[in-house]
Amino acid sequence: MTKILAAVVQLQSTEEKSRNVDAAARLVTEAAQRGASFVALPELFNCIGRWEAVVAAAEPISGPTSQRMSELAANLGITLLAGSIAEQSEVAGKIYNTSLLFGPDGQQLACYRKRHLFDVDVPDKVTVRESEFVMPGAEIVGTTLPDFTLGQSICYDLRFPELFRALADRRADVIAVPAAFAFGTGCDHWEVLLRARAIENQAFVIAPNQHGRHTPTLQSYGRSMIVDPWGTVLATAADGESLALAELDFQRLQDIRRHLPALSHRRDGQ
Ligand SMILES: O=C(O)CCC(=O)C(=O)O
């Protein structure tokens, strides 16, 4: 198959897990009913807010949220990227920020843990120390699916082109960037970075984001997006909890790579 319909789900998650998972399931179901066969949820979709609350909500990989997502994927017959959840780690008081991929039979196909942690202090915009609560992941994850190869990243990873190049080296046709991208930086950087990563790696970029205020000091930018390998924005979510859908045409991807073979013009394998 050279074309599929993909969807990104935009949420305004809270610290209330059952509310968030229900909202996610409702929008994933709507996306599947509209014909999407690949649906992606944002970062920390099942619980976001104060870090203490996120850590307290952490689950093992095979916990209630992943079981619900696995059943959802199987019932709808779709491939589901469960954005990320807080995963219990071996270190007390710390989690992994973990993205799980489920196939249309409900099987877990991949697990990616956010590698780059958002420790920044940008005056008047955003101050965060994610590494106080989150352990960095070690692995780079690319998964070959029947229709395409998926590369995984999470949010702040977007600023590290070497990760995306490593995913391109694993032949990623689609790169997912589930996010709760800070409003303060998102206004200027979100779309530019997504489009740059798509253009330079000649891949579709699927970027479901959180939107709106989660706590008085935590606000996500929204504008969840699907970008094609030419850097064209194919779809953008409206503000609030919403969906954006777009067709991924893999023949167009191959044509772009053939006409403009920049990835094969790299010097010294870089
Ligand atoms: O890179 C940025 O500016 C935002 C990243 C972010 O919000 C996150 O990783 O949670």
The H-and-E topology, N to C, reads as: EHEHHEEEEEEEEHEHEEEEEEH
Oligomer: single chain
The CATH superfamily is known as Carbon-nitrogen hydrolase
CATH class: Alpha Beta
How many beta-strand segments? 17
Mean pLDDT across all amino acids: 97
Largest sheet: 7 strands, mixed
DSSP helix fraction: 25-40%
Q: CATH architecture, please?
A: 4-Layer Sandwich
Shape annotation: globular
Write the layout of secondary structure elements.
Blueprint (H helix, E strand, L loop, with lengths): L2 E8 L6 H17 L4 E3 L10 H6 L7 H13 L2 E10 L6 E8 L5 E6 L5 E4 L3 E4 L4 E2 L6 E3 L4 E4 L8 H9 L4 E3 L6 H19 L2 E4 L3 E5 L2 E4 L3 E3 L5 E4 L5 E8 H10 L11
Parallel strand pairs: 1-2, 2-3, 4-8, 10-11, 11-12
Antiparallel strand pairs: 1-17, 3-4, 4-5, 6-7, 9-10, 12-15, 13-14, 15-16
The protein binds 2-oxoglutaric acid.
Describe this structure in words.
- The model has no long low-confidence stretch (mean pLDDT about 95).
- It is built from 6 helices and 17 strands.
- The protein has a single domain (about 5-260), classed as Carbon-nitrogen hydrolase (Nitrilase/N-carbamoyl-D-aminoacid amidohydrolase, 4-Layer Sandwich).
- With about 270 residues, the protein is α/β, with parallel strands linked by helices.
- The strands form 4 sheets. Strands 1, 2, 3, 4, 5, 8 and 17 form a 7-stranded mixed beta sheet that branches.
- Bound molecules: 2-oxoglutaric acid.
- 2-oxoglutaric acid binds next to helix 5.
- 2-oxoglutaric acid (AKG) binds near residues 118, 155, 156, 181 and 185.
